[in-house]
Amino acid sequence: MRFATRFAPSPTGFLHRGHAFSALTAFDAARAADGRFVLRIEDIDATRSRPEYEAAILEDLAWLGLDWETPVRRQSEHLADYHHAIDALRAKGLVYRCFRTRKELDIGRAPHEPATPFTGAPLRPDEEAARLERGEAFAWRLSLDAARRALGGFEALSFVEDGAGPHGENGLIQARPELAGDIVLARKDVGVAYHLAVVLDDTLQGITHVIRGHDLFEAAHIQRLLQALLDLPTPTYRHHRLLTGPDGKRYAKRDKAQTLRELRVAGVTPRTLRAEMGLG
Q1: I need a labelling partner for 266 at 20 to 30 A (CA). Which of 26, 120, 139, 158 fits?
Q2: How many domains does the chain have?
Q3: How far is it, in rounded angstroms, from Cα 225 to Cα 85?
Q4: Do both 17 and 65 map to the same domain?
Q5: Distance, CA of 37 to CA of 43 (rounded, Å)
Q6: What's the whole-model pTM score?
Q7: pLDDT grade, residue 246 (50/70/90)?
Q8: Do residue 109 and residue 55 come from a single domain?
Q9: Would you say 33 and 6 are in contact if contact means Cβ atoms under 8 Å apart?
Q10: What is the pLDDT of residues 106-161, one digit of tens each?
């Protein structure tokens, strides 16, 4: 299959240096392999996505010198695909309704303590029916116990890492989806969740290599499980380093990192930016 990779930003803010590094790394890899470069807009979070941010993404990437296949896939236009996948998992008994809120899951945990991966089970049918009757909100969670039974264990699950994880992980990696717990696949406020949407999109777009920052390395473990449960192919993963600022912290929207738009106004050129990031 022809090499294909993608850059998949969420239109919830303006792009910064970290985004540029990831996009250029993926684009350069596709060009070097005479392959495909795909842009995907991951806008399933309707509460935070904005059209003006999507327009800015296209403008910034064009300024960097990137081009991509059209039409661009927008996740918000393909919700039926994701819900069909949830229905398939429901039919196999692999998901359950969870009525617990984030606040309830955090009860008893000190603010400085990391969240413990949650595992649960379906409610008794009568209790679930009563809560549905009252109109209580719920999330669809993937049951690790049911998934383990369906696959006969997780020992056969693995993926190839030809970049490097945060601790230098490389080569054939044993997947450990249990580290994530019973993940949410869909919920009322955001709809379908990231992990489910991304594995379906990668398959539908023929992605052979997932190139992204190593902060998402752990996501490959649970995504590998979803691929197995949905009979989807597993791409090769290539995680790369994260750019950090003078303070040693990685660039992030929430920290109001300097945006590409601001760099452009300041007279920075794509060539200068490439050199600064070590991309030549």
Answers
A1: 26
A2: 2
A3: 14
A4: yes
A5: 19
A6: 0.92
A7: confident
A8: no
A9: no
A10: 544 444 455 678 898 999 999 999 999 999 999 999 999 999 999 999 999 999 99
Strands 158-161, 139-142: pairing is: unpaired
- Amino acid found at 122: P
Contact 203, 180 (CB under 8 A): no
CATH of the domain at 161: 3.40.50.620
Q: Is position 238 within any domain?
A: no
Q: Can you give the residue range of the structural domain that contains 166?
A: 79-206+214-233
Report the DSSP beta bridge partners of residue 16: 259
pLDDT of residue 247: 72
DSSP state of 179: G
Q: Output the CA angle 240-9-33, nearest 5 degrees.
A: 50
Say whether both 109 and 194 belong to one domain: yes
- Are residues 104 and 156 both part of a single domain? yes
Same domain, 25 and 109: no
Chain centroid offset of residue 105 CA: 22
State the DSSP H helix or E strand holding residue 219, giving kind and residue range, or none if neither. Answer: helix 219-229
CA distances from 264 to 15, 59, 101, 181, 271 (A): 12, 11, 42, 42, 12
In the predicted model, is pLDDT for residue 270 greater than 50? yes
pLDDT for the residue 115: 66
Q: What is the mean pLDDT of residues 38-62?
A: 95
Query: Same domain, yes or no, for 91 and 226?
Result: yes
What whole-number distance in Å separates Cα of residue 198 and Cα of residue 204? 10
Closest CA relative to residue 199, chosen from 222, 174, 178:
222
Q: Which residue has the tokens 């209790």?
A: 127
Confidence at 100, pLDDT banded by 50, 70, 90: confident
